[in-house]
Amino acid sequence: MKSFLILTASIVALSAAAPALGADFAVQPVNIKAPPMPIAAPITHWTGYYIGINGGWGAGHNCWNFNGVTPEGCHNSTGGSIGGQIGYRWQIFNMVYGIEGQGNWADFSGSNVSTAFPADTLRTKTDAFGLLAGQIGYAFNAVLLYAKGGAAVTSNTYHIDSVATGTEIAKSSNVRWGGALGAGVEVSLTPSWSAGVEYDRLFMQGTNVAFPGAGVDRVHQDVDLITARLNYKLSPVLGK
Q1: Contact 149, 132 (CB under 8 A)
Q2: Which residue has the higher pLDDT, 196 or 3?
Q3: 131: which strand partners?
Q4: Model pLDDT, residue 177
Q5: Which residue in 137, 211, 215, 218 could disulfide with 96, CB within 3.0 to 4.6 Å?
Q6: The pTM is what?
Q7: Burial class (CB in 10 A: 0-12, 13-18, 19+), 166
Q8: Are 11 and 18 in contact (CB under 8 A)?
Q9: What residue ranges in the chain does DSSP mark as E strands?
Q10: Backbone φ and ψ of 19, nearest 5°
Q11: How far is 151 from 175, CA to CA, in rounded Å?
C-alpha cells in the first residue's frame, strides 16, 4: 500500500512538471541578424582650387620662308618638358567648369637644311611655353573627362648654321602668342590628390624673325604636347 501511494505521488508530480518541460523543449525562435548595410561608395566633388606639376613630351612643327615668300623647308623640334599648373574648378551636378594657368620649361629642338640655300642649316629651339585656358568636363564620380581651350605662348630661339662647318651664321629669338585646344582625363586618388593625362595642340601665329646680316624669315609653328599631371586640391575657398 505504501509503494502504491509513492507511485501515485510520483505520477502526479511528473504530470505537473510535464508542461514546464514541454515549454523548455519547445522550438525556440531563431535570432537572425539583419544583413549589414552596404557601404556607399565615396562621392568625389571636383570643386576647389588646385595646384600641381606636370611632365611629358612635345613636338613643334616649324616651317621657314625666306622673306615670307621663298620656302626653306620644315622640321620638327622635339624633346621633354616639365612644369606646373594652378586652377579652379566648379562642379554643378556632373558638369565641371574651370580655368587653369600652366607654365613649362621645355627642350624642343630640331633642324633641316634650307631648300633655298643648301649651305645653311635652319634650327629651332623652344625653351618654354605657357597656357591660359578654360575647361569644361563631365565627372563620372572619381573620373573626370574634360576639354580645354584658350591662349598659348612659346619662347623660341632660331639659328642659321653653316652646313660645312657647323658654325653659327646668325641667331634670333622671340616670344610668340597663339591659341590652344586640348583634352584630358583625370582620376581622383584621394579627396585631395588626383592624377591624369592631357593632350594639347598649340596653334602659333606666323611671325617674322629678323637675322642681323642674314635677312628675314617668316616662321610658322604648331606644337603638340602630351603630359602626365599630378594635382593637389585645396579648399574651395582659399584660406580655409
Answers
A1: no
A2: 196
A3: 102, 152
A4: 97
A5: 137
A6: 0.81
A7: exposed
A8: no
A9: 48-66, 70-92, 95-113, 120-140, 143-162, 168-188, 193-211, 215-233
A10: -60, -40
A11: 13
CA distances from 79 to 13, 74, 75, 170, 184 (A): 102, 17, 13, 23, 21
Identity (one letter) of the amino acid at 218? R
Do 97 and 136 contact (CB within 8 A), yes or no? yes
Residues 165, 84: Cα–Cα separation, whole Å? 39
* CA dist list (Å): 160 to 57, 111, 166, 168, 201: 25, 9, 9, 6, 27
Q: Which residue has the cell 541578424?
A: 33
Check if the beta carbon of residue 110 is closer than 8 Å to that of residue 121.
no
What letter does residue 15 receive in the DSSP assignment? Answer: H
> 24-40: per-residue pLDDT in tens?
444 555 556 656 655 65
DSSP, res 239: T
Q: For residue 157, what are the contacts with CB-CB under 8 A and spacing of at least 6?
A: 124, 125, 127, 171, 172, 173
pLDDT tens digit sequence for 51-89: 999 999 999 999 999 999 999 999 999 999 999 999 999
Backbone torsions φ then ψ of 32, nearest 5 degrees: -100, 120
The candidate with the shortest Cα–Cα distance to 150, out of 102, 84, 94, 80, is 102
Cα 78 to Cα 75: distance, rounded to the nearest angstrom: 10
Question: And the C-alpha cell for 132?
Answer: 591660359
